[in-house]
Amino acid sequence: MISLGIIGTNWITKQFVDASDETKSFKLTHVYSRTEAKAQLFVDDLSKSNINISTDLEQFFGSTDFDTVYIASPNSLHFSQAKLAIEHSKNVIVEKPSASNIREFTILDQLAHQKGVFLIEAARHIQEPIFKTVQEYVETNRDQLTGATISYMKYSSKFDDFLSGNTPNVFSTNFSGGALYDLGVYTVYDAVVLFGQPEDVRYQAEFLSSGIDGSGTLTLNYNDFDVNIIVGKTKNSFLPTEIYFGKKTLLLDNGGDITKVSEAGAKKEITEIPTTKSDNPMDSESVEFARIINENDQAAYDKLFGYARKVNRILEQARMSAGLVFKADKEY
Ligand SMILES: NC(=O)c1ccc[n+]([C@@H]2O[C@H](COP(=O)([O-])OP(=O)(O)OC[C@H]3O[C@@H](n4cnc5c(N)ncnc54)[C@H](OP(=O)(O)O)[C@@H]3O)[C@@H](O)[C@H]2O)c1
């Protein structure tokens, strides 16, 4: 099993460690946190022994007890932490997006290349069997494809805190948060993996007082169809995601965390398409990322990295079109 260090002690990191245990893909050996107490709490909660703790990033990455790091910190920290990891010749699995802008992404890309390590964006949903079912359907019916409407809006558990006058990381331009970078990234992955590179990108954001996008609409223009995307962290949407094939429509219950796929036929009759969904949505990605690293599968890695490059470009183009500026954009 691949030895694993982690950054970030929130629930998502626990979910990744659980997935790694369940699938026997990674073995946690080292936890980084800004505070020893939080790291210890994280370790205690897992009931694991022989796990090292660091509160200093240089010391963490300088240690030899892990060779792959999973990074789940606020978005704006992904770049500096991933860069430091690569400089220490660690493979990196980093939450998406791995960078705040394409300048940062390019630096990581070049450095990972130089050091010969893997830099993998943890786009978990595209690894799930249910997404592969959608992908196969789109590929089979590609000649009839006429567009899509993708929806992913969830009232954030942190929005009440924002409304009470605080600025949680995810609602801050200092941390490269917002609807597009937090939830929109899933939908941009949907579009890139299913439909490829768009010709044009436009984002219309609904800004909050912090300067971040609370919600917005993103349009991706392809040669002969459009993909319209609705994202938001300030409201709950129950709209399905739809992919159009002339008279037929493929229905997904949402754009970021698909649990049900059906087909509406020419006579509007709806048929559910059988597929599988793991209880832990990170199972599939942990298996695949470990396989790529273990087998040194360069072709599979290049494919994933190609998706990441396109997604990061689209995110930046979208932000530019909406006038959405992050603190990280001003740091050079
Ligand atoms: N794949 C998924 O399904 C999924 C789901 C949720 C989130 N995510 C992604 O995971 C990442 C983390 O999201 P989150 O909601 O967990 O973020 P978060 O709560 O703001 O921060 C995550 C961790 O980063 C550290 N941290 C927080 N603020 C920091 C600061 N100012 N400076 C340095 N470290 C700080 C904390 O760990 P310590 O206090 O221990 O240092 C915290 O546990 C994001 O990229 C998000 O998009 C992915």
UniProtKB/TrEMBL annotation:
<dbReference type="Pfam" id="PF01408">
    <property type="entry name" value="GFO_IDH_MocA"/>
</dbReference>
<protein>
    <submittedName>
        <fullName>Gfo/Idh/MocA family protein</fullName>
    </submittedName>
</protein>
<dbReference type="InterPro" id="IPR000683">
    <property type="entry name" value="Gfo/Idh/MocA-like_OxRdtase_N"/>
</dbReference>
<dbReference type="InterPro" id="IPR036291">
    <property type="entry name" value="NAD(P)-bd_dom_sf"/>
</dbReference>
<feature type="domain" description="Gfo/Idh/MocA-like oxidoreductase N-terminal">
    <location>
        <begin position="3"/>
        <end position="119"/>
    </location>
</feature>
